[in-house]
């Protein structure tokens, strides 16, 4: 199978971009756009040479794969019957509302030998792709993700809405489990936490400070990595990377002149393209995706544990 018959469920602010890319990708034939909003669904479907339908159950037996970009509370109810019927699924983040739902979906995908990917798109951010080869045994990581309030996500707090991206990123970079955490939050504009600050300690000794806010006017998304041989600064939003290292041959630092700054070349495609390309390639080649259900589950589990221990 070299061309994957695809569908996008949920034609909202993110789903429309899934549809755009799947409608253009050479490995995909976008067949359907599913949305209960007929006007919007028809518009997005028409723009991408697909059909609009309102019931995702219609997809069973008609497509190979589906991207589930509906609100989080519907992820499990949509993904379960599709996986049970043999449809590969990419489920947007956060994966599910609880760990039990995630475990069940993972089990179904394993039994059916299906690709189950979770939409932690920052893994495919060109800046992260460029920085990852230089990350080696980090000792301290600081991540800040700040942005404006969006009423569409008021039903979940900033931890599951935004910070979950960075929790997945920490597992990717540190490659160990969390052994302790401290979490503080505040409700400002909604009934859930709108700002959160968390300190995580990993089994290998790495410490991470993570901040997320949705009450900031400007978008600010940066990660700083401190390790024995370098300091790495990554701008998620600006898609830039700077690596500060001691120059080769320097035995002892005496001034800033002994430091070299590397700026790796940044890939040009958008993160969502790389994510969907990984999804399609995993289906065609029968391989596990870069961010499988297990990684999505781990991020949800840590996010829920943070919320459980959060001090307001």
From TrEMBL:
**Domain of life, per lineage:** Bacteria
Provide the species name: Endomicrobium proavitum
Pfam (any one): GFO_IDH_MocA_C3
Annotated Gfo/Idh/MocA-like oxidoreductase N-terminal domain residues: 5-120
Show the GO MF annotations: nucleotide binding
Q: Which residues does the UniProt record annotate as the domain GFO/IDH/MocA-like oxidoreductase?
A: 152-225
Identify the InterPro entries for this entry. Answer: Gfo/Idh/MocA-like_OxRdtase_N, Gfo/Idh/MocA_Oxidoreductases, GFO_IDH_MocA-like_dom, NAD(P)-bd_dom_sf
This protein is called Oxidoreductase family protein
Provide the organism lineage as a comma list. Answer: Bacteria, Pseudomonadati, Elusimicrobiota, Endomicrobiia, Endomicrobiales
């Amino acid at each position: 199978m070299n061309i994957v018959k695809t569908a996008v469920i949920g034609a909202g602010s993110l789903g429309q971009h899934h549809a755009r890319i799947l409608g253009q990708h050479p490995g995909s034939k976008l067949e359907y756009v599913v949305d209960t909003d007929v006007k919007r669904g028809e518009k997005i479907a028409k723009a991408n040479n697909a059909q609009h339908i309102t019931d995702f159950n219609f997809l069973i037996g008609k497509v190979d794969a589906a991207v589930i970009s509906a609100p989080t509370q519907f992820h499990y109810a949509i993904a379960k019957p599709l996986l049970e019927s043999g449809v590969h699924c990419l489920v947007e983040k956060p994966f599910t509302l609880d760990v039990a739902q995630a475990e069940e979906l993972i089990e179904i995908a394993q039994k059916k030998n299906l690709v189950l990917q979770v939409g932690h798109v920052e893994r495919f951010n060109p800046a992260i792709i460029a920085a990852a080869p230089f990350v080696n045994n980090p000792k301290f990581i600081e991540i800040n993700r700040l942005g404006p309030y969006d009423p569409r996500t008021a039903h979940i707090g900033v931890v599951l809405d935004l910070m979950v991206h960075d929790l997945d990123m920490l597992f990717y970079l540190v490659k160990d489990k969390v052994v302790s955490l401290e979490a503080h939050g505040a409700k400002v504009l909604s009934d859930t936490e709108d700002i959160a600050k968390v300190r995580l300690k990993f089994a290998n000794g790495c410490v991470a400070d993570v901040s997320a806010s949705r009450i900031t006017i400007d978008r600010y998304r940066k990660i700083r990595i401190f390790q024995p041989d370098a300091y790495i600064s990554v701008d998620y939003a600006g898609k830039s990377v700077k690596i500060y290292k001691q120059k080769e041959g320097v035995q002892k630092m005496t001034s800033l002149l002994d430091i070299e700054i590397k700026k790796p070349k940044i890939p040009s495609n958008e993160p969502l393209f790389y994510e969907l390309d990984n999804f399609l390639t995993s289906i065609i080649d029968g391989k596990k995706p870069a961010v499988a259900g297990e990684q999505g589950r781990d991020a949800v589990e840590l996010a829920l544990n943070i919320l459980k221990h959060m001090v307001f």
